[in-house]
Amino acid sequence: MVVVLDGVLVNRGNKRRRTKMKKQMFVMMVAIALVALFSTAASAGIADTARGDEISVARILDGVVTKGGGINLDSVAQTLKQDIVELGFDFYQTSGDGYNYYFTLPVIDGQYKGEFTGIVPGNYEVNVYAFDDNSNVIFDGHTSVSVSAGKTSVLEVWLELADLYNYQFAIDGLPGEYWDWGPLNVTVDNGGEYTAYYLGLDAQGRPIFSALLPFDFERGYITVQNTDGKWYSALLQFDFYAMYYGGGEPVYQPFINMADLGSVEVTIRFACDKPE
Q: What are phi and psi of 3, to 5 degrees?
């Protein structure tokens, strides 16, 4: 069985733009030709990976689904599409002897080309992942395909933004020292909870943390305990663009303890109802 891939994911002529809007329903389509041969080999690999021809396989849906505050995830998807450096294909057979295969393909200047060999004919579910140069999954998708010996099948994969993005942030003025083990908790404004980890100190002695958070994250707080046993809930207020355009540096936050925040009670009255 041979899987042939050849196409273009993104036009590198488009530079990064700092645009802020709402959410995504961005998808990419990767067209894959599958040619099944009479084979029982359980192993698989990539043959002849090289820069592909300029065959466009990118497509954007017109619809935009709104979620959250001011982050447009369609714009985020357009920004991240150019950062894909590798595609991963996880095949698992749902018929026959249950063969599994995992392939990777490099993406060079938005283009990919290669062959997968040694796949046994049958019905397969396929998970597809798009990685950036930090090995983060930034898009993923799922599809299925039926492979018949001696015949050609077409596999279409629609890739959407992954659920979470790897944020790194430093909190200036956070009291005490911290352990570099064990998970921490980040709570976002909508009540969702996510896991964070302490990474150490930067050159200025500020503690750095890493957390997988939603792409449309804008505000929340991290709960930490220092080595003296004291607990703090530190305000986090940044978004994807602050992280992405930060030149590889963590987002810097001043320490603001959630316990020290104030509140405002609002009363609305109408002048037309004011007694004379």
A: -110, 120
**170 & 68 share domain:** no
Q: Report which of 96, 88, 86 is spatially closest to residue 124, judged by C-alpha positions.
A: 96
Provide the number of structural domains found in the chain: 2
Helix, strand, coil % (nearest 5) of the chain?
Answer: 5, 45, 50
| Distances from the Cα of 183 to the Cα of 93, 180, 211, 227, angstroms | 35, 9, 10, 14
pTM here is 0.69
Q: Tell me: do 120 and 143 sit in the same domain.
A: yes
The token pair that represents 16 in the structure block = 């990064």
- Domain co-membership, 143 together with 172: no
Looking at the fold, whether 45 and 11 belong to one and the same domain comes out as yes
Residue type, 207: P
Containing structural domain, residue 208: 164-260
Cβ 112 vs Cβ 9: under 8 Å: yes
Question: Model confidence over 73-128: pLDDT tens digits?
Answer: 888 998 898 899 999 999 999 987 888 989 888 988 888 776 676 778 889 999 99
